[in-house]
Design goal:
Elements (H helix, E strand, L loop, with lengths): L1 H5 L1 E14 L3 E5 L4 E9 L1 E5 L2 E5 L3 E5 L5 E4 L3 E13 L5 H4 E3 L2 E3 L2 H13 L17 H7 L2 H16 L2 E6 L4 H16 L7 H7 L4 H12 L3 H19 L4 H7 L5 H12 L3 H10 L1
Antiparallel strand pairs: 1-8, 2-7, 3-6, 3-8, 4-5, 4-7, 6-10, 9-11
Length: about 280
């Protein structure tokens, strides 16, 4: 586990300070990045992971990536917000490996961290405060960030994220099957651009296809083929929002031979075509 955490990569997408009223009311948000909020004044609500979180002053909140969520402010509140990407190795998420809480009481030093991130990364706020929209693309942010600032930025992000980790909060996986499943997740993440079949996975890990499917479903609540398709769409969302690759190029990079099938599958998962999904990064 320690070795896995050492490969954790964090990339800042947005940081800003917002004053929001009842226009902050957005449903069915599903983003390829995680969010951190620090509330300074007023209150609001966020729904995710089958729970309602009441945003309170001097508290911080984490919303993991690829989590369906709803945001609602009845009157007024002010918040620091951070959007960031996270990945362990190739294809794994830290949320696969560690348990997190989603609300904590802030310390004075936490506000200092947000202020420092703002000073290190000016002009990385949203064009507006709708949770689904953002302006600064990842590769542009990396170009603007000099090495020292980027190192400090990543260090502060790591500290803030660590505040939400549960002590001894490793996912309860042990034994040969747990090791095998983590290897499969890594293999899938590293090979999304290639054909990945259940038979190939089973052969690589010396089990039968039926056994692997049942084992995978028992642990993750989803069959391997559906999981693979979902990860392809998640990867394509990130590429649509953080690169200038054409949609055809992106479809190929996530393992689709047919552009039309990619578009159809993307819309099935997100409710939007790739073109519409990408356009919202500019127009929202």
């Amino acid at each position: 586990m320690q070795k896995s955490l050492q490969s954790l990569k964090l990339s800042l997408q947005n940081i800003g300070y917002a004053r929001l009223d009842n226009g902050w009311d957005h449903d069915d948000i599903h983003s390829p990045f995680s969010r951190l909020y620090y509330i300074t004044t007023g209150g609001a609500k966020v729904h995710h992971n089958n729970k309602v979180f009441y945003l309170r002053p001097n508290h911080m909140y984490l919303i993991p990536s690829y989590t369906y969520s709803r945001y609602q402010c009845d009157f007024y509140h002010e918040q620091y917000y951070i959007h960031f990407y996270e990945e362990i190795g190739k294809g794994l998420s830290i949320y696969n490996l560690r348990n997190f809480i989603y609300e904590i009481e802030a310390r004075e030093v936490d506000r200092n961290y947000f202020d420092r991130l703002l000073s290190l990364n000016p002009n990385m706020g949203l064009k507006d405060e709708k949770p689904s929209g953002f302006e600064a693309l990842l590769h542009q942010a990396q170009q603007k960030n000099k090495t020292a600032k980027q190192l400090e930025t990543n260090g502060i992000l790591s500290i803030l994220l660590s505040r939400f980790m549960v002590e001894s909060g490793n996912k309860k996986d042990s034994g040969e099957n747990a090791h095998r499943l983590k290897g499969i997740l890594t293999y899938i993440g590293e090979n999304l651009h290639n054909p990945i079949g259940l038979e190939t996975l089973a052969e690589n890990y010396n089990v039968s296809s039926d056994y692997l499917s049942r084992l995978f479903y028992k642990r993750y609540g989803i069959r391997p083929n559906r999981y693979i398709q979902g990860k392809r769409i998640e990867r394509s969302q990130m590429l649509l929002l953080t690169t200038n690759y054409s949609i055809k190029q992106i479809s190929e990079k996530v393992g689709f031979d047919s552009l039309s099938y990619f578009s159809k599958t993307f819309k099935k998962h997100t409710g939007k075509t790739p073109v519409v999904f990408r356009s919202e990064r500019v127009n929202v």
